[in-house]
Amino acid sequence: MYTMARYTVARQALRARKRVAVIPRPPNHTAQGGILTGAVLAVLAVAMVPDTSDAQATLRGRVIDSEMGHPLVGATVRIRGGPPPVTTDSLGRFEARELAAGNAEVTIQLFGYAQGVFTLYLPPSGGVSQDFALDFTGANLPEEVVRARVDRLMPRYVDFEQRRQRGLGAYLRWDDLVKKGSSSVGDALRTVRGVRIQCNQQTFECFAVMTRTPQCQPTWWIDGVEVRSFHENTPIRDIYGIEIYRGVGEVPGQFAGSNAACGVIVMWTKSRPYR
Q1: Rounded to whole angstroms, what are the CA distances from 157 to 84, 174, 269?
Q2: Domains and their CATH numbers in the chain
Q3: What stretches of 204-272 show up as alpha helix (H) in DSSP?
Q4: Beta strands in 8-49 (DSSP E)
Q5: Which of 47, 58, 100, 123 is the most exposed place for a label (fewest CB within 10 A)?
Q6: pLDDT (tens digit per residue) in 19-36
Q7: CA–CA dist 210, 187 (Å, integer)
Q8: By the 8 A CB rule, do 222 and 269 touch?
């Protein structure tokens, strides 16, 4: 009986435990929960940032002559990593679409002009409008084309051209410089008979002197103004013309002075309002 009684009590206790309601535990607001919440917020933040990897921009350009400002027709425009090359129309204009945002390298070529390479920034959206100026060289163009350009520029350099026609002294015009392949003023002067370039090995400076008077330096005039000197490394692309007078007997009155015996070099630079 004692054993049977203990068994009955044990079964009743087991049934009572089964009837007890299980209360769910509240959410665990621990550091782990904070980490999960932060991760979710980070994902949302990334999703809200605009993706510019596929952003596209439009470039509208106009190609012009750097010295005269007129539009250049038929220039070929290439954009690195962009669409196929485009060609400028009768107004010198072009348009390139679907370009990647960021820095863009634009290369422009036209027969008779120096190749132009330009770098500009394209925004992630919208368009950019810009003028691109090319330098005229006249290389491989017919003589009448080059002469027509000289005639248009003549009013600006009329005095230079008149003295050049008289032929008193030595003259180098921009088209002569292109034909000679000179890259600097020093290179151009080396081709003139009676002119010598002397270089100081200690100061790494070079000066032009006349063969007749190597002990003194000539007087320099730049665009009608007397100056002390002119750097022989000046790029030739900035020069319209050079007049070289090797002695007093060649120097025109407007450039004469106390140092004329050492020679006179007159430089005419290109005015480039459209660069």
Answers
A1: 41, 12, 10
A2: 56-134 (2.60.40.1120), 156-269 (2.170.130.10)
A3: none
A4: none
A5: 47
A6: 544 445 555 555 454 544
A7: 15
A8: yes
